[in-house]
Structure formats: C-alpha cells, structure tokens
Amino acid sequence: MARVEVRGLSKRFGGFQALDEVGLTAREGEFLVLLGPSGCGKTTLLRLIAGIEEPSRGEVLIDGRVVNDVPPRLRNVAMVFQSYALYPHMTVRENIGFPLKMHHIPKAAAAGKVEEAAGMFGIGGLLDRRPRELSGGERQRVALARAVVRNPSVFLLDEPLSNLDAKLRVSAREELRRFQRRIGVTTIYVTHDQVEAMGLGDRIVVMNRGSIRQVGEPREIYERPADTFVAGFIGSPPMNLVEQGDRLVGFRPERFLPAALTPKADAVAWSFDVTWVEDLGAERLVYGTLGGKASEGRVVSRIPASVPIAIEAGRAYPFSVDRVDLRWFDRATGLRTEGGAP
Amino acid sequence: MAGIRKTARRATLYGRLSAFVVFSAFPFYWMVIATFKRDHDLYAPANNPFVFNEPPTLDHLRTLLFDTHFLTYLGNTFRVGLAVSAITLLLAVPAAYSLARWAKRWGEALGIGIFLTYLVPSTILFLPLSRFTAGWGLQNSLWSLILVYPTFTVPFCTWLLMGFFKAIPRDIEEQAMVDGLSRLGALVRVVLPLSISGLLTVVVFSFTLSMHEFIYALTFISDSAAKTVSIGVPTELVRGDVFQWGPLMAGALIASIPVAVVYTFFLDRFVSGFTMGAVK
C-alpha cells in the first residue's frame, strides 16, 4: 500500500500539451478513477506515474519519495494495459511468473506465488496455455494475476475492461472491486466510461484537455459537478443546462418531472414543449424545449416506467424541478456558483 | 460434371507445379549428373546429355576435394558468412530498434534512406573500397570481405528489422519495463525473442549474400588460401579456356546444398520476413 502524489505535473508532446500543471493525491488503499474523454491526458498521467513517460515539469511521489528519476522497474508499481500486453511467446505460467523472475525470487517460492495468483482469478487450469489460446476475459485475468503476483504497492490499470463484451464487463467490474477491497492496494484506474467510474471509484478525478476539472466521490461529482464540462460529461443523458441571464441553470433529467410529481412549495415550474418521446422499457426519455421565461434550450426528462402519466410529442406539459436540485453555473467561466432564483 | 471439373482443375494445378519443379530443379540435376559423369561420357557429342551413358565415377569429387583448395574455400566461406552475419546483427539490431521506436517521423525516411544505399551497385563501389582495403593492408585477407560485406548487409537488414520491431506492440515492451527490466533488458528478453523470424531472416540473408558475392571477393583476394567458394571454384577450375566441368559442378553442388536446405526449412519465416518488412 502506498500514497501516490503528483505535483505540478506537465507533459508536452511536441506542440501538444497533454498534461498541464496537474496536482493529485491517491490515498493509501484508495480506488481512484481517472475519468475523461479520449485525449484528456488520463493515460498520460498513468504512464507518468508508472515511469514509462518522463514529465516535462513537476514531480511524481510514491510514499512521499520523489520518483522522477526512478525507472519503472524500481517503482514497485504494477500496470495492466488496455491491450493486456501479455508476452505472446510465453505460457500463462511464465507470463505471471515473469515479474518474479525479473526480481530474482527463488524458483520454488515463485512457483507457489504464481499458483496462488492464478487461483485468485480462477485461471489455475490455464497455466500451460499460451495467450493466443485464451479468450478476452481469460487474458484480462492473466494480466491482473501478473500484476498482483509480486505484491506491488500501487496498481495502475489502463481501461482494463474496455476489450470485454458488455456482459462480461459488468461481472469483471464487480470482481475487480471485490478483489481490490480484499487486498487493499492503492489503485489508479483509467477509463472513459462514466458508468465504470461511478461503480468502481472511491473517488473520481474528472479530466479534460490535460487538466483536472473535479475530484470527488461519485455521488458528489454527480450531484454537484464543479463546472459545465463535468455536468455534461457525467450522467446519461447528461445534466440539462439552460441559459438564464448571465448564468446557466442545470438539473438532472431524472429530477425534471411532470409537475404533479414534485411538491408545489419548493418547485420551479416550466412549460415543457415535448418534441420526441423514447420509451426504453424501464424509463421514458422525453425530449423537448422549455417555454415560458427561460430562453430556448433543448432539455430531456427521464421518467421511470412506474409513472403512468401519458406524454405525447407535439404537446406542452407542466414540468417542474425541486429547487434544491437546481445547480447554477457562470455562463462565462462555466464554473458552478451558489444559489439564485430562476 | 463437377467431379470432372475438379479433376481438370487439379490436373492443371499439378501440371503447372510440375513444370515449375522441373524448371527449378534442373540446375541441381545438371550439377549432380555432371559431377558423377566420366569425362568421356560428358564430352562425347553422340551421348544423351541427360542420363548416365557410362557408369558414374567419383573422380571429379576426388579431384575437387584433394587436388584443389576447395575445403579451404569452403572453410573461408563459412568463416566470412558467420562473421558477416554476426556483425550485421550487432549493427542492424540496435539501429533498426532506435529507428523503429525513437526516430518517429524521421524514422521511416531514414530507414528508406539507409535502404537506398543498398541499391548502389557493387561494380561502382569496389573501386573506392579497394583503395580502402589497400590502405588498411587487408588485401588477400578474409578481413577485407568481413569488413566490406556488412556495408550492404547492414542497410538492408536494418530496414528489414525495422518492420519487425514496429510490428511488436509498444505495450509489451513497456509492460516488461514495469515488470522489472531496463529498456535494454526488454529488448533482449522480450523484443528479440518475438522477432526471431526477423533475426533468422537477417542471418540467412547475410550468410547467403556473403556466400555468393563475387566482385569484391575477386578484387580483394588473389591468394588461394584466402579465397571463398564463389571465386575459388571458377578461378582454380577454369584454366584459360579449359573448363573442368566435373569438379566445377561438384563444387557448385556442395556449396549450394546447405543454402537449399536452409531455405527449405526456413522458407516460411523467410517469406514472412520480407513481406513484414514490406508492409511495415
């Protein structure tokens, strides 16, 4: 277990600023998720922590020690790549045992550790196969087993679930979370999938264009996004943002409901001109624009199937949002501001 | 009907294959038959040249092995071939790796530039290079060939290996570095084992090229003790306008057998080596 910290970390690739003055701490034993669209710098940050890339400026600290000049092999970090990067010319046993061999662990002890790590991921029966004979899910387990086998102090995972099919991804996510809880190793996990981030992370770091936009627990990020980027990136569909004077008001689609469902006293009401209704089974997504004094803006409402109210495209309905569920953002900076009347 | 068409297609296929086999095996057949034919059988115009008209003989083989320096030539050829292969690997592996991994945009252009030097004909280069070997006092020494042959094996093999190294995902190498290796360690323990067909291609290519190279060998070496097969056989067995066909063919046969064996066993890898280099 270790604390991982980066200070003022920047990385340029030619003319491209991949990371810009990033500061961040992963606490001991924490599952920290780096989330952002592709090209936001999350993988670069992970690679800088691993030592595969060198920072242009700034420091990487593991357990309080600056490791900028320490090569990856001496940082005691384990990494799982998106491609799993298994050694194709070695068997599963040799793959998992490779880090031990490189660290000169005696053969007998190493063999035991390999068996143990393989057992942990239920791949004990595959030890004599080669990577090309494995399915995607099995490869991912081999990569994870290879990562845990030498008790690293930090796990770095780069989209390890993205090559799995949707069904397998859900069970792999659960397994991964349980496993991390059990061994309690500080884990930094990169993903562009907000569902994965919300489900896995103790805390989420939302990144965009090389800098951190918000760090917080999943619920906090979802409920109180720091700016319009986070508001628009997290949630599916994302938060509605509607112009109101020099500010933007934001509300989650599932909070924007027919007026009959929200308590009158503290609700803000709009007339909702419905243009399109999507029935997804468990819920309905209702698209339209706001009439009344709000300026025009497309918004979406997410109504659970348990609400029987009929809604048709081409008509207007009274909709409202509880005042406590409104979030305000500065139009110029995009940053969240406190309070205010609609 | 379908059966007939299938048979016809097969017949065409095998017909073509047989024609090709006859075409490529004929030189070998000719070498074998000339090696073991008696002189009289070989030179009498009335004889059928394609078969033994008189009982075969080992005389030519004996002449080649015991009355000429053929065994010395063979030894020299292997020595030069091995040394050139080793030098080529030593220089081309790091060069190709650096170009494939670090030179980025320039890598491809540099690689092609290096490859182009391979296309300069040796008939032009042997003049300046003979000054070089003379200057270093290397005439009549195998070292002249060992040092000169890499000038055309290294560029080509560098370009060839670049394709192999590029085909290996960076992830695997970086994984090896996280798992406990230095960059050099990752190259040796992970990248090279994965490029084994490329390395074999390099060895086969360098070896055969140094084996059949003629111009440099002819220019730099005149001492019998330092000749390689490719010049030893023609210079020693062609005296003026007298061609000693029997021993000549025996020499050619013995020199080409190892090459044929190597190509047969490594053909697949060799071909994948060339195509891989071609598509990066």
Report a brief summary of the structure.
The complex is a heterodimer of chains A (342) and B (280). Chain A has 342 residues and is α+β, with helices and mostly antiparallel strands. Chain A has helices at 42-50, 92-102, 107-120, 136-148, 166-183, 194-200, 218-223, 228-233, and strands spanning 4-13, 16-26, 31-35, 57-62, 65-66, 77-80, 154-158, 186-191, 203-208, 211-216, 240-244, 247-251, 257-258, 267-279, 283-290, 298-304, 316-322, 327-330, 336-337.
Describe the structure.
The complex is a heterodimer of chains A (342) and B (280). Chain A has 342 residues and is of the alpha+beta class. Helices cover 25% and strands 33% of the residues of chain A. Chain A is built from 8 helices and 19 strands. A 6-stranded mixed β-sheet of chain A has the order 6-7-8-3-9-10, sandwiched between helices. In chain A, α2 crosses α3. Chain A is elongated and about 75 Å long. The N and C termini of chain A lie far apart (48 Å). Chain B is mostly helical and 280 residues long. Chain B folds into 2 domains: 56 residues; 218 residues, MetI-like (MetI-like fold). Chain B is 79% helix and 1% strand. Chain B is built from 14 helices and 2 strands, in the order αααααααααααααββα. A two-stranded antiparallel sheet of chain B has the order 1-2. The relative contact order of chain B is 0.14. The mean pLDDT of chain B is 87.
